[in-house]
Design goal:
The protein has 53 residues and is mainly α. It is built from one helix and no strands. The radius of gyration is 23 Å and the shape is rod-shaped.
Length: 53
């Protein structure tokens, strides 16, 4: 009973760690995409302003 309980706790912790790691990776990828999008918009905006002037 004790070993099975420990195995269950270890597997549960590993599962939780894997899920949290996946969430962190997804959040990091989303942030990187947003940063690239913002930078591309800023460059387009600067080009528009320069062309307008």
């Amino acid at each position: 009973m004790v070993t099975s309980g420990n195995d269950f706790a270890i597997s549960g912790f590993l599962g939780y760690a894997a899920i949290s790691a996946l969430l962190l990776l997804a959040a990091a990828g989303f942030a990187i995409l947003n940063i690239k999008y913002i930078f591309s918009n800023q460059t387009q905006w600067k080009m528009l302003m320069e062309n307008h002037n």
